[in-house]
From TrEMBL:
Superkingdom: Bacteria
Taxonomic classification: Bacteria, Bacillati, Actinomycetota, Actinomycetes, Kitasatosporales
Protein name, as recorded: Alpha/beta hydrolase
Pfam families with a match to the protein in the record: Abhydrolase_1
SUPFAM superfamilies, alphabetized: alpha/beta-Hydrolases
Statement: the UniProt record of this protein carries the keyword Hydrolase: yes
């Protein structure tokens, strides 16, 4: 287990590192998840293996620290990841990022361009979402006040998301989980989609084929973003269809910049 201090208060981000050629890849998990659990099999898949790979847990999640005073905005997450990548000597990395991690990765690439050479977004959040009571994702968590969530709303979320997601969500700090969800639902200004359109590195967006066409796909593709529908999977593409995920990711990583 590797770690780096990423806040003035001494909070640490931790990651599992797989050895390989020193052209790094960084994997970022989604809300209430952890990168080793979601990406370990993909990082050693024959189509993706052989590269130095950092399976990194963002603050508040997995093996990383859970500071109560951290704001958990997308920008704050991105800056903390940037500190960890810099400490690890992982500049110019290919970043593969799922769901909320994809939103953080977009902000990371926009704010710290020296750190990101290629970007693969795995069913990532591109647009703000209004709070929606009774749903399982970030918009559902954001429908609570922080006081409501900490007082017992977290248990309602636990019962709603199911055992699989809760198995990693329970590792997250409850304050971290709530604030991350609220800030993910609120998005950024400019939006994550707008930031993504302006990037000039090879980029791809993977989505489940069953979800149908991605909103705004034509504009993304016109800006050089490869939009790839992966069959036989849900939101957790890398877990549901490991082979399809590896093929789609390897294809995006082989693209040249526009």
């Amino acid at each position: 287990m590797h770690s780096a201090i990423v806040t003035p208060e001494g909070d640490r981000i931790r990651w599992v590192e797989l050895p390989g050629a020193d052209a790094p890849r960084v994997y970022l998990h989604g809300l209430g998840s952890t990168s080793p659990a979601y990406f370990a099999a993909s990082a050693v898949h024959p189509l993706l293996a052989g590269r130095r790979s950092l399976l990194l847990d963002m603050l508040g999640h997995g093996h990383s620290d859970r500071p109560e005073t951290f704001p958990y905005t997308l920008e704050a997450h991105a800056d903390a990841v940037a500190e960890a990548m810099t400490a690890a000597g992982a500049e110019g990395a290919e970043v593969i990022a799922h769901s909320m991690g994809g939103a953080v990765a977009i902000v990371l690439a926009a704010r710290h361009p020296r750190l990101v050479s290629r970007l693969v977004l795995v069913d990532a959040n591109l647009d703000p979402q209004p709070p929606t009571p009774g749903t399982a994702g970030s918009s559902g968590l954001a429908s609570y006040t922080e006081e409501e969530f900490l007082a017992g709303g977290w248990a309602e979320v636990r019962d709603r998301v199911g055992a699989h997601w809760w198995s990693t969500m329970r590792l997250a700090g409850r304050t971290a989980l709530y604030r991350s969800a609220v800030n993910l639902a609120a998005g950024t200004t400019p939006t994550m989609r707008e930031l993504l359109l302006e990037l000039r590195i090879p980029r791809g967006f993977l989505l489940p084929e069953q979800d149908g066409p991605l909103a705004g796909a034509e504009a993304l593709e016109a800006a050089g973003v490869a939009v790839v529908a992966v069959p036989d999977c849900g939101h957790n593409i890398m877990l549901d269809n490991p082979e399809g995920f590896a093929r789609a990711t390897a294809g995006v990583l082989a693209r040249e910049a526009v």
